[in-house]
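Appendix C reproduces, verbatim, an entry submitted by the partner laboratory led by Prof. M.T., so that reviewers can inspect both the input and the predicted structure.
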Amino acid sequence: MGEKRAHASESESDSESDKQLTHTDSESNRQLTHTDSEEDGSDNDSMGSNEIVNVDFEFFDPQPIDFHAMKRMFEGSFGDDSDQFNTSALVDLILSQPSIGSTVKMDDDSDPYAFMTALSTRRDSEPIKQVCEYLVRKAGPKAQTLSELLDKHHVGLLFSERVINMPPQVVVPMLRMLMTELEKEDGFDFEYFVLVCSMYSEVPADDGAKACEMDVFVHAEEEFIEEFAHITFDF
């Protein structure tokens, strides 16, 4: 069963999590190689040899050509709830600030396989307002706390999306680059970040067997980020 978990974390904590995550990444350049192994189905090799496929991914600034792929990732992440805010306008906002955030692609003209960026809640924009109102509605008992946090502090909406088979190793350099970009640009001095995470929850089987009470993050790195959250809530 799919569900969401929202984290509101202080920006200093996110910076610290970035520092602790970097031990898994040996370089800070803008290229990453992913190796994929698959079984060769050739009749000439009954032993089933492994074929190594090297795929080079590169990091790019968000571009207009990325619009449709980014919108699909948004809609896939939020599911049925994606119709509660204007995802097209949200993507347009991301594309309007190309110096903030990055995408992961094979080349400049291909669709992105992942992207990460942050939007300011102080931006006078209808889609930003829609997202904030949506999160407050979903916060349940934490609604007042979240509403006060959004009203009294400069909050960044952190978006980190990728296709399901994209290796998680891309997250560390994207997060590092994003934090550097936020420090350089005016108007992005966030006190907190809000991150919506997709999760799986095990439910009882049809035969009445008891399910293990365990939530699983779709993006494994978000379990680590949760440790630094000021508030969390599920919906």
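The beta strands are 2-10, 31-39, 50-60, 102-105, 114-120, 155-162, 192-201, 215-217, 229-234. Additional entries are available on request from the coordinating office.
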